[in-house]
Every structure is written in C-alpha cells, then in structure tokens.
Amino acid sequence: MPKIQVRMVLLFLQLSLLVDGVGCATIDGDLENTTIREYDSAQENFDAGVRAYQSGRYAASILYFEYVQDRFPFSPLTAQASIGVANAHFERREWRDAAEAYKLYVRYYPRHTQRELAMYRSADAQLKALPREFFEGKPVLHKVARALVPVARPIERDQGRFKRALKSFDSYLKQYPKGKFSEGAQEGRLYIRSKLAEHELYVGDFYFERKRFDAAKSRYDYILKNYSETEVSEMARERIEEIVAM
After folding, report:
1. Integer Cα distance of 85 and 62 in angstroms
2. What's the 3-state SS for the chain?
3. Start-to-end Cα distance in the chain
4. Which residue segments constitute the domains of the chain, with CATH numbers given?
5. Phi-psi region of 29 (alpha: psi -120 to 50; beta: other; left: phi over 0)
6. Residues 6+ apart with CB under 8 A from 161
7. Residue 98 in contact with residue 84, Cβ under 8 Å?
8. What distances in angstroms separate CA 169 from CA 78, 120, 127, one per listed residue?
9. pLDDT at site 30
10. pTM score, two decimals?
11. How far apart are CA 37 and CA 198, in angstroms?
12. Which residues of the chain fall short of a pLDDT of 50?
C-alpha cells in the first residue's frame, strides 16, 4: 500500500477511536468566530482537522473537515471528513446538527466503514435533542396519587420528533440487529415508545376525569395494543379494570 494511503488510514483510525467515548465535552467555542489556516491539499487540511479534534478544538475541526468537503469534493478523504463533521458536532452537544450530519454521511457514503456508527449516532442525537422537560417527572397517576407526583408534559406538539427518532432507531436495528450499538438502540427505542405511551395515558386520564369513560378506555386499549412492552401498559390495564368494575 502506498505510504500516503497508509498515512490516511492511520489518521482515520485515530479519529474513529475517539467516537467510542461518550459525547460529554462542552462547546469549545463559537463556530462563527473560529478561524483556521487553510492549506493547499486535502491531506493537510484533513490532518489539521484530526489534530484539532484530538485536542478538543471541535469548532476548528468542523471548519477543516468542511473545507475538505467543499474544496476537495472528489478526494478519498471527503467521506472521512463528513463523519468527522458529525462527530465534532456530537462532541459539542449540537444534537440537531450532529443528527443531520450523520444522516448526510449515511446518504452519500452508504458503503463507507462508519455507516453503522453514523446510523446509531443519528438516532441517539435525535433523542438527545428532544426537549428536556420530556425527560422529567413520572407518568400520570390516577386518583389520589396524581396530586403527589409531578406530571410529565404531554408531547402532542412534539410527537413528530419523537416518531422520527424512533424510526431512526428502528432503521438501525433492522440493518444491525446484533450490531455494536444494538443494546443502546433498544434502550432508546423503548424510552421513546414509553413516552408515546405516556401521552396516550395522559389523554386517557383527561377523559376519565371528565367521566368520558368510553373515550378513556379507547386510549387505554390503544396502549395495551401498541405499547404492551412498556411499564405504562400496566397502568393502562389498571384503568381499564376500574372502568369495567363501575
């Protein structure tokens, strides 16, 4: 293998090793106010992007990798630069940007080496981008206990985002059922489905409190049919038993 190819592979392996860690870094600087020194070749700019990434200067690494993509679109380094942009956004906790960058990588480089990682990270970033209030509180409880437990905000206005993240996890698991990130994907999938079930429970309880028991039971039945694996399904079953016993 030619020396330049060996060097390129080694640099990419260095970058790939970094993606196994959790994205826990804080934003390292304003992307718009970050400047870089542009080099004459794709290799030099890619190398500079790797060095910036390794030193935690993720904003600079994004600019270098994007420069490789824009200035050298036919370089064999362009695919590595694409996943590099996504990884840097992920490290900066820019979840929406990261999710979109991973999607683009999968779309344009479907046979590249980091496809599995990109599919999982895209779904995970979408999950992390969901509003924080949906991760707080507990499912709505019935009767007296309801007043003692904080109620999680219903997700009716954001169901589309939940369902898109769920679809991304499903896509990953369909292609990599025993993949490296399958356990995390299953957990993310279950979490989102639990939140969707909580929404149905919230609406069912709304009808129950207004004595619209047929409408409430319809929502509870929907939970049992579509979200039976969630803990919320047991709560729905208890509600149905109470309605039947009336």
Report:
1. 5
2. CCHHHHHHHHHHHHHHHHCCCCCCCCCCCCHHHCCCCCCCCHHHHHHHHHHHHHCCCHHHHHHHHHHHHHHCCCCCCHHHHHHHHHHHHHHCCCHHHHHHHHHHHHHHCCCCCCHHHHHHHHHHHHHHCCCHHHHCCECCCCHHHHHHCCECCCCHHHHHHHHHHHHHHHHHHHHCCCCCCHHHHHHHHHHHHHHHHHHHHHHHHHHHHCCCHHHHHHHHHHHHHHCCCCCHHHHHHHHHHHHHCC
3. 78
4. 1-113 (1.25.40.10), 130-156+189-246 (no CATH)
5. left
6. 126, 129, 130
7. no
8. 26, 7, 10
9. 80
10. 0.78
11. 51
12. 1-14, 16-26, 137-152
- What per-residue confidence (pLDDT) applies to 18? 45
Dihedral of CA atoms 143, 144, 145, 148 in degrees, nearest 10, equals 130
Task: Report the C-alpha gap between 58 and 31 in whole angstroms.
Answer: 9
- Report pLDDT for 108: 96
Which residue carries 């981008």 as its tokens? 129
Which of 187, 140, 141 lies closest to 166, judged by CA? Answer: 187
Beta bridge partners of 138: 151
- Tell me how far apart the alpha carbons of residues 137 and 107 are, in angstroms, rounded to a whole number: 37
Find residue 151's DSSP bridge partners: 138
Distance set, CA 155 to CA 105, 106, 145, 218 (Å): 30, 29, 22, 19
Contact 86, 96 (CB under 8 A): no
Q: Determine the residue type at 205.
A: D
91-141: per-residue pLDDT in tens?
999 999 999 999 999 999 999 999 999 999 999 999 999 876 555 544 444
